[in-house]
Amino acid sequence: MLTGHLKLLKDYFDIMFEKHCQTCGIEVDKKTAPKRFGRYFCSEDHSQQYLKKKEEYEKRMEEEEKKHPRRRGGCC
Asked: Picking from 12-21, 28-37, 51-60, which range would have the lowest pLDDT averaged per residue?
């Protein structure tokens, strides 16, 4: 049983390192929550939504790179 300062430290670390769903922000139990891409989710559906948004973002960035290619080398 923890007492005094040890209990306070444990409570502090529990709060600091609690996990949240990357889609909706709800607190999840990392022992039972699905983990995909190194992140925790409250459901498989939310992990799929995250994947879809991530793919859309990467596609937009790829299109932007094609429109405005960066110079290689130099300072800019």
From this structure: 12-21
Number of domains in the chain: 1
Q: pTM for the complete prediction?
A: 0.62
Task: Measure Cα distances from 17 to 23, 29, 31, 54, 56 in Å.
Answer: 18, 11, 13, 24, 29
Structural domain range at position 19: 13-66
**DSSP 3-state assignment of 64?**
helix
Within 8 A by CB and 6+ apart from 10, the residues are 2
Average of per-residue pLDDT values in the chain: 80
Residue 27 lies in a domain: yes
> H helices within the chain, ranges in order?
4-16, 44-67
Find where tokens 């290689």 sit. 72
